């Protein structure tokens, strides 16, 4: 360190030069910048402002703020990122900071903390990038922790807790084992079979007539339906029992869909056997038919086994604003063109536009380019209004589509990046574990060789050390610093 060199002149302590007029040179990663005290003292709590007043405190004060110092040039040296530093010094000239493209937001935040610049000076557009990066890191950490929890076994847990974890992994995480993948495929097939049976059961040629002359599903199809419902019921009950948070499990959207897919079967079964005693048979049959229609909810169970459907659902959630704009455009167009169509068609004696609310249907099918033809204009002005309405409908629908597609692609790519990052974190942890164990083995061998120990005991120690090298971090109690922790 330069502080220990006797050739350096003493630090100025006479205070003859005012800090506002002082000129200092800062060398950050080889990039030199000249600053004046009056600019730096605008923000006295920052590190650069403290440099102005640290000269009177001696070398201890100086080296507590910088990495090195040249007293002849009054040049402070910092081993930091020069690109980030060029952005941070904007606060002394413009009162705000903008982050350059290509700089990691988390690293830039760490640089701001080093230079003691408050995050409130970071512009809002850059804060959005920082918050997005934080969310990504939290998601990566959550995924890594879930994988570690699945791989780890806590000996202090009871046998029932360990059994719950095994059942939860078996039913909820198909990638955990080969039997779990088999169960996931079976569940997917049961959903498809149940949906096909529901559709095929409505074919008149495959239905049978009961004693009262009413058509009903074929008994074979009914038995297949019962078997599928039994599978769904057992699957739901096991997942509920093994769930770590039962309230969150019960209120989850996909689990509500599971209940809606199962419940109609048992309600209709109850009404069929007990409802006839409480109400008329015709009312019971109508209620059963209404409940059987609810079986279509089971098709949504496919989303549990399809990452594409899940991505589409999340993308639509992120696109509520664009979907709202689409509905607003269509609502305004429907109201305007239906009112115009009703007014223009009143002069025709055989008009099909009886009222403005009835014209809403015509405006909807025209603007969406469906055009059933049940209602159509007959006057020249009405046809001109129809032409303008479907042209405006095409434009109104096309405008928000591109942002919605972009949201889907962005979210899909983000999920793939997060999955890859989580895998890389686990690989890095295993690598750190192997390096740490190898270093420990080498030091142990060196100690033994220095002691000059030989014989069977020495040979056995070598074998143990060599085998310990291949123990992965995931099964050890030691924790090594990863890229994720360093970035945080």
Automatic annotation (TrEMBL):
Record-level Gene Ontology MF annotations: voltage-gated potassium channel activity
Annotated ranges, domain Potassium channel tetramerisation-type BTB: 24-125
Occurrences of domain Ion transport (ranges): 181-415
Family annotation (SUPFAM superfamilies): POZ domain, Voltage-gated potassium channels
Chief localisation class: membrane
InterPro entries referenced in this protein's UniProt entry, alphabetically: Ion_trans_dom, K_chnl_volt-dep_Kv, K_chnl_volt-dep_Kv5/Kv9, KCNF1-like_BTB_POZ, SKP1/BTB/POZ_sf, T1-type_BTB, VG_K_chnl, Volt_channel_dom_sf
Subcellular location(s) of the protein: Cell membrane
Residue spans crossing the bilayer: 182-203, 247-269, 323-340, 384-405
Example GO biological process: protein homooligomerization
Protein family according to the UniProt entry: Belongs to the potassium channel family. F (TC 1.A.1.2) subfamily. Kv5.1/KCNF1 sub-subfamily.
Cited function: Regulatory alpha-subunit of the voltage-gated potassium (Kv) channel which, when coassembled with KCNB1 or KCNB2, can modulate their expression and their gating kinetics by acting on deactivation upon repolarization and inactivation during maintained depolarization. Accelerates inactivation but has relatively little effect on deactivation. Coexpression with KCNB1 or KCNB2 markedly slows inactivation.
Annotated protein name in UniProt: Voltage-gated potassium channel regulatory subunit KCNF1
Organism of origin: Thryothorus ludovicianus
Gene: Kcnf1
